[in-house]
Predict the structure.
Amino acid sequence: MRIYLVLFSLCLIVSCSEHNIQTSLANKQQHYSDKVLKAADISDDGHYSITSDNQQICLWNNETNTKKYDCLQGLEAQLIELLGISKNKRYFYTSNRVNVHLYDLASGRLITVWTAGDNIINDIAMSDDERTLVFGFRSGQASIVSIENNTIKTYTPHRLDINSVSISADGTKVLTGSSDKTAAFWQASTGKILQTFSHASRVNHVVMSADAKVAFTLDAIKDRWFWLLRIGKKFSELASNIKFIEFNDSIITHNNQWLLTASPKQLLQLWQVKDGALLGEWHAFKYKDKYRSSVLNIKLIKPTEIATITSDGVYETWPIKAIEKP
């Protein structure tokens, strides 16, 4: 009996599992800022990073470790807390949560500006086809913006703040997470709610697969679920006992088999969608004099390589390998 107890205790200490959790050191590390970043994004192929420290916006070539052109400064660059690079690198956008600026990535030229009026923008996403933007507002409303036609449609999928938004690759479906304790899956063209997912507390983070088949939703306390969107069925959850998980960014990838997540606590993690198993865990660079470094953005830039950028302006890449729990 004592032997079994000892073995059980050892398993608790070393986290016995049916698979090994992969990890590694970064294979590239580049430092882009000596200030704390408020927002950052990496292009899907890892070629560019964009950073904002609330005073300037810089577009970096990750291959050459140089700026593509002079950083944007002045009023357009102040208090920028949301930004992104489009799938095919045609655009980048920035927002101070009241206005949204759209730029031509190749030249840095300003294309257009949208204003939120009395609303405050909590999150923004752009479709992979680079035709549609979605803004999620503190009012519970969401706006669908046609980039080509410069038209805006506004709907009210929630009663309270929208905290997180995700849009399908073709821009036809949207997933939103709200402080009203629900995530909503809806049509971009009409605002029609297709599915509603209830949670125990406010939903802080959502992400949807490019084909709008699978989603992940995370609330403020304990619910961290995977869903089949078309039928509204929950099929797995993260295999973690840690309370109050937070993610700054995430992507569903590899034919909807993997979830990659970026944490405020220096962590990037790889999860298996079908059962929520943790497959990999890496620690981003942190300066010795800082308590922690927040991973702001994560991308799978190659089938075997992850890229991240932190609040300290450190761009890193990480090797990964396919692992599947039996």
Remarks:
- The radius of gyration is 20 Å.
- Residues 221 and 279 are 23 Å apart (CA to CA).
- The mean pLDDT is 92.
